[in-house]
Amino acid sequence: MLCCAAIGCVLAVLIAGTLSRSPRQSGAGSSVIPRAVLAAVPFYLAANYLAYQEAAMIAGAGIGCIGGLYVLRGWWLPDWSTVVGKLGRRRRGATLRYRMLAVVGDDRAAGGRSLPNAA
Fold first, then answer.
1. CB-based contact 72:17 (threshold 8 Å)
2. In terms of pLDDT, which residue wins out, 17 or 26?
3. CA 102 – CA 110 distance, rounded (Å)
């Protein structure tokens, strides 16, 4: 049982490493696919070993994996303050765009009469 729990913890490290973002990489360079390919072999070996175990052993590995992911949540989960900040900026940008389009639409509806002649 302890061996299966250890396998679950190792799988948690593999999953967290695959999902994590490096601070040096941004944009297209931070793709998850190359890291997932590197983690595929150990993940397959662990899953193959666990497939022939009893249900209690598989449950122990699952609990170890979930516990490991919980412990490593700061590594692979995004910082929620930045996620909320991005959502707020997106909303502000949409509101500003809506206001700008409303003012332009009002000016067009007025036929330019509200603008003073600069000539």
1. no
2. 17
3. 12
CB 68 within 8 A of CB 11: yes
Residue type, 51: A
pTM greater than 0.70: no
Answer yes or no: are the C-beta atoms of 12 and 62 closer than 8 Å: no
Distance (Å, rounded) from C-alpha 104 to C-alpha 15? 50
| pLDDT one-digit tens code per residue, 18-74 | 777 665 555 544 566 777 787 888 888 888 888 888 888 888 888 888 888 888 887
Asked whether the beta carbons of 5 and 61 are under 8 A apart, the reply is: yes
For residues 83 and 91, what is the distance between their CA atoms, to the nearest angstrom? 13
